[in-house]
Amino acid sequence: MITMYVNELRRLLTKNTYVLMMVVLPFVMFFIFAGVYTRGSIRDLPIVVVDNDHTALSRTLIRSLDGAQGLKVADILESMPDVKQELLSRRVHAVIVIPENLQGDVKRGKQTTVTVYKSSNNLIISNVILSDVSTVIKTVSAGALWQKLQVKGVPKAMGLNIVSALNLRTNPMFNPYYNYAEFMVPPLFIAALQMIVLIAAVLSAYDSFENDGLEHPEEFDKRHVVKSVLGKYFAHMSIYAVIIPALYLLFRYGFGLVLHQTWTSYAMMLLFASGIYFIGALVGLWVKNRFFGVEIAVFLTTPGFVFAGYSFPISAMPGILAAIAKVFPMTIYLAAFIKTAYMDAPYIAYKSELITLLLIAAVSSALYMLSLFVFIKKQRAADVNAA
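Request: output the structure for the sequence above.
Response:
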């Protein structure tokens, strides 16, 4: 086994394809993902405001919109533009229209409407705009009502009760600042790791036939097969065992992402990688064409992020797809990662995910070993018939 381990590790660290894929690519993809979300939250989305009122209240509203974290007033217009053209130009993400007589209607207690034109193609941007504009409108409206009550001589305490009769208090937990880096970088990296492990395992399986003599099954006995499988497996895991902690350090000290139970989530990531490795090895064993095998690996990886429940909740998926999503390795590991690294949950909380990852690794490795024995037996029979 040691000989197979050393040979496989030497191959992985000297062949450019494996070095780029297993050593360089994880860091490149990490820095790309982290770079995109390094600001943490969405800020300064450009918007256009059409001011049809030109009063102190409309100017206050515009200043408040420009001061909102997610918004930036790129232009103030005096007439209605071609809204569709403005949104198509991608220069701005929304057009806010302040109606005529805004200040007068508010003073008279007449209901008036500020209109928001926004593209909802991007749900994240659309929701940020809607949330910030709604907050600004409510704040400015409350301020206008407060001034009106003061003019009428309403006592301060009573006025405050009228303006804020119903309050909402939220207690965001585990990502209190709504940090997109914390929300998106780990799952994207896990999806990338899944793809790298799977493709590397597929390619390694093909190289085994070309370089390790599997095309001559008469030279192999069961002990040799077991040693070969374990040697190659430990060679791959040795590389990930070094790469993953290095990336964890970058998570923590490079980008300030606070991760709890580092060793627990690290151990489960290796367990997750083990299951993926043997699934890839199975593909490489039974799919004869190298290019087609890699395509299958990519195909198996593609739904991982979607099924993980990040882009769309699993509970809202159709029944069959929800059931498939719940048994996807990435879905299971990501749930365990969130519970350990983010929520600092006790063992009982992630026990089911840990057991499931163990089962996936055990079943996939057993299937690969069994398939290898079957494959060798068929090859021997074919060689006998050919002779």
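The mean pLDDT is 82.
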